[in-house]
Design a protein that fits this description.
Layout lengths: L41 E6 L14 H7 L7 E3 L10 E3 L7 E3 L4 E5 L14 H10 L11 H5 L12 H5 L6 E3 L4 E5 L7 H4 L28 E6 L3 E6 L17 E6 L3 H10 L7 E3 L9 H6 L1 H4 L3 E13 L7 H10 L2 H8 L5 E3 L27 H13 L7 E7 L2 H15 L4 E7 L4 H5 L8 E6 L10 H5 L22 H12 L3 H17 L3 E11 L5 E2 L3 E2 L4 E2 L5 E2 L1
Parallel strand pairs: 1-10, 1-11, 14-15, 14-16
Antiparallel strand pairs: 2-3, 4-5, 5-7, 6-7, 8-9, 9-10, 12-16, 12-17, 13-17, 18-21, 19-20
Helix pairs in contact: 9-11, 10-12, 15-16
InterPro entries: Peptide/Ni-bd, SBP_5, SBP_5_dom
Protein name: ABC transporter substrate-binding protein
GO cellular component, one term: ATP-binding cassette (ABC) transporter complex
């Protein structure tokens, strides 16, 4: 998933967490634990920008996915527990994680008894079917590709709002056996489909409450909270009285109210959380690490470090290279060779925020293959001499590389500071880098349009589940690049559309033996890196500051953030 993203033959425990003695989040001896969360109170959650999407079918980023679980339940979901358990799925609205048949091409799920919407009406198979079907509509863009990729018979289907919904038949590959039993028919064998339906694109939506493109502003809730108020800078969630804790083993739902507030001034936010006064004592920074100028203070002060929530996960920060605007392979390779990862990481706050990366599949995933095509492990400051030679060779061959490029970033102070290191880096090889700062709230929608005019794009990815199948297809399958002129849901920012890679993706998805599938994803990662369409920079770690009254925090690998479902107040 983008994170500003997000997401499984998944092996439980394949993503490990390293936690500080955080506020109620480590699994150390109980005697060493702070006071656990209590029920009640108002939790304040700070985000760098208000989530662009609340509609479950439109969720694109890790922050949106994290917030979505307050109001949206799915057939399955990830456990809300620290450690290895967080990589495991359980039945959420469904009684279990699914029952495959016909060689993993058919999957059956049964809804739990007494799961209800915020108005008290029961959740039915028809709601699940409508939720999946609406993801095929042209009225809005859908980021997660899994319904279109995996379900059978989707080529000509255009959603429930036109043509009488396929003459009243809807999408035939989602079948309501009865009100509680759902059958999915897939176009290929998918062994980890139980993880796939944990994605919000498979969330139910009741047809009577569906306001189509306006559903983004106020989705109907089946989770522990419902949206009470939404402004430009704030979302206020209050309890949903029809949510029943007995049917939901995952969401702790400690606070009575959760206020999500947008504030992109990272240094001020970190300072206020450190001072721990007023509402900031009951607050946590959800999606931004501690500001770089405060890192050493937090790490070296036992009282502050005890309040920080820290963990590693399978996320990667990378730069996408637009292969349509820079079609010359050696010109792209020059950009990879020249990149200075040391300066980038130092500006971001240092090693506490990540290890240097050479691959797109992180080491926490079993599909990871260790390789270093551009010798960056031994040259973290880059190899500008190699980059200059590549560019000189192209110029001498009459194929001069561009000397002015545009870099897209979310317009935030901390990202501007990191982008400045890239400007300096590329000046050394004669390239002027123009930084295009974009409103953070709409950033991923804008760069999600394949027609955007940026050469380099700031990006990050958290796998939707712990396998290469949640990294390589969404980021590099050229068949998923949307063709609509106004599309905002592209995640293949490099616009790579290589038939041999597309075919290899299909072969890997169809491989039923997990160990062989892992190997295929790792090989694909290396083949894609040979195309120089991304610059992997760091395998990310999180260090999030919390107020002294916040409890229950741990970094969930699904989001690379503190799990909102576990947070409460002392």
């Amino acid at each position: 998933m983008l994170f500003g993203t997000r997401r499984r033959a998944i092996v439980a425990g394949s993503i490990g967490l390293t936690l500080l003695a955080t506020a109620g989040c480590s699994d150390a001896d109980a005697k060493n634990q702070p006071q656990p969360p209590r029920t009640g109170g108002t939790l304040h959650v700070i985000v760098s920008a208000k989530p662009a999407h609340l509609d479950p079918q439109r969720i694109a980023t890790a922050t949106e996915a994290n917030v979505s679980r307050l109001t949206t339940r799915t057939l399955t979901t990830f456990k809300s527990e620290p450690g290895a358990a967080s990589s495991e799925i359980v039945g959420d609205l469904a009684t279990d994680a699914g029952r495959p048949s016909e060689g993993n091409r058919v999957w059956d799920f049964q809804l739990k008894d007494d799961v209800r919407w915020e108005d008290g009406t029961p959740i039915t198979c028809a709601d699940v079917k409508h939720g999946v079907e609406r993801s095929f509509s042209s009225l809005f863009s859908v980021a997660q590709p899994y319904a279109k990729t995996y379900l059978a018979g989707t080529d000509a289907y255009t959603g429930p709002f036109v043509g009488g919904n396929n003459g009243g038949k809807g999408l035939a590959s989602v079948e309501c056996v009865d009100q509680r039993n759902i059958k999915f028919r897939l176009s290929q064998s998918v062994g980890d489909f139980g993880y796939t339906v944990a994605m919000s694109v498979f969330a139910p939506v009741p047809a009577k409450q569906d306001t189509k493109d306006q559903y983004d502003k106020r989705p109907f809730s089946n989770g522990p909270y419902k949206l009470q108020e939404a402004t430009d800078q704030q979302l206020v969630y209050v309890r949903n009285s029809y949510w029943d804790r007995k049917t939901d083993s995952v969401r702790k739902a400690y606070p009575d109210k959760i206020v999500i507030e947008a504030n992109g001034d990272l240094a001020t936010v970190t300072s206020n959380l450190i001072q721990n006064e007023g509402d900031f004592a009951d607050a946590i920074d959800l999606d931004k690490n501690v500001a770089p100028n405060f890192v050493q203070q937090v790490v070296n002060d036992p009282a502050l470090s005890a309040r920080a929530v820290q963990g590693s996960y399978g996320g990667i920060r990378y730069l996408a290279i637009n292969s349509k605007r820079i079609p010359n392979l050696d010109c792209r390779r020059a950009l990879v060779y020249a990149f200075n990862k040391r300066k980038f990481r130092a500006a971001a706050g240092g090693s506490v925020f990540g290890d240097y990366a050479n691959t797109m599949i992180a080491p926490q995933l079993k599909a990871h293959k260790a390789f270093d095509l551009y010798d960056s492990t031994n040259n973290v400051e880059g190899k500008p001499d190699v980059a200059i030679k590549l560019m000189d060779d192209q110029r001498n061959a009459g194929k001069a590389c561009p000397t002015t490029l545009t870099l897209a970033i979310p317009e935030q102070k901390d990202i501007r500071r990191v982008a400045a290191t890239m400007v300096e880096t590329y000046q050394q090889i004669g390239i002027q880098l123009k930084v295009n700062g974009i409103d953070p709230e709409t950033y991923f929608d804008i760069i999600g349009n394949p027609a955007n005019q940026n050469d380099l794009l700031w990006a990050g990815w958290i796998p939707d589940w712990a396998n290469g199948s949640a990294v390589i297809p969404p980021l590099f399958d050229g068949r998923l690049i949307p063709t609509k002129a106004n599309a905002t849901n592209n995640q293949n920012y490099s616009l790579l559309n290589d038939p041999s890679i597309n075919d290899a993706i299909t072969a890997a998805l169809e491989e039923s033996v997990p160990e062989r599938q892992y190997r295929l994803w790792g090989e694909l990662d290396e083949k894609i890196q040979q195309q120089a369409v991304t610059i992997p920079i760091i395998y990310m770690k999180a260090l999030r500051m919390a107020g002294g009254n916040v409890r229950g925090g741990f970094i969930h690998p699904q989001f690379g953030q503190p799990d909102l479902c576990a947070l409460g107040l002392a």
